Amino acid sequence: MNELFVLPLVVRIERIAPPERTDALEAAAMAVLSLLDDPGEWAAEFHAWQSTGKIRKVVRRARGAEWRRAIALPGRTVEHRTAEVRVHPPVPLDGWPKDLARLQVGGTELADTADPPPAEPPILWANPDLDMSAGKAMAQSGHAAQLAWWASDADERAAWRDNGLAVSVRTAAADDFRAKVAAGLPVVRDAGFTEIEPGSCTFVADAPWLYGRVARS
């Protein structure tokens, strides 16, 4: 059996001026896309993570000295409007670097204090019927971005890359979300490790080229 790996993501949340929730979710998705597009020196770890068939991600929060220790470790930082998210190479589930292992997972609560800018595709739509913490939603938006990347062909990925691997994250209306789940778009179904029931549809990835790419639900 392959060893289970996880992808660590760290969001910077200072007491003063924490990031907007939408910015943090989009930054997390873009951080995942950065490694999908070019894993660089971590190609072996990335392959080991994906080869298990599970794309588990864990989001932790850091501030001050914790953040400085996190960015000293191997990884990449995505800065997106008010948010900073650090993605690290995949690690064994029980083999986290100590400076990441000591960071808190729970309590990652963020809010939007202003309306985000107009959404542009790809749009990662959150299920309006699920109550997810910001940390949970960041991991799920990362899953949605990854499924969208896998469903895109080389030309579509190249165009996405030329646009800076940008994504928009928004919460769908209930009827719209159900319609998108049934439209052959990439859908994230949660494994149920934390917060929500196993099999819950958390996000749908929506772009003109993604319709009909996966089996309809």
From TrEMBL:
Q: What InterPro entries does the record point to? A: Pep_tRNA_hydro_II_dom_sf, PTH2
Question: What is the organism field in this record?
Answer: Nonomuraea turkmeniaca
Task: Look at the named UniProt entry and state the broad enzyme category this protein falls under.
Answer: hydrolase
Asked if the record carries the keyword Hydrolase, the reply is yes
| Alphabetical keyword list | Hydrolase
* EC number of the protein: 3.1.1.29
From the UniProt record, which GO molecular function terms apply?
Answer: peptidyl-tRNA hydrolase activity
Q: What protein does this entry describe?
A: peptidyl-tRNA hydrolase
This enzyme catalyses:
an N-acyl-L-alpha-aminoacyl-tRNA + H2O = an N-acyl-L-amino acid + a tRNA + H(+)
One Pfam family of this chain = PTH2
Does Iron-sulfur count among this protein's keywords? Answer: no
Entry-linked Gene3D superfamilies: Bit1
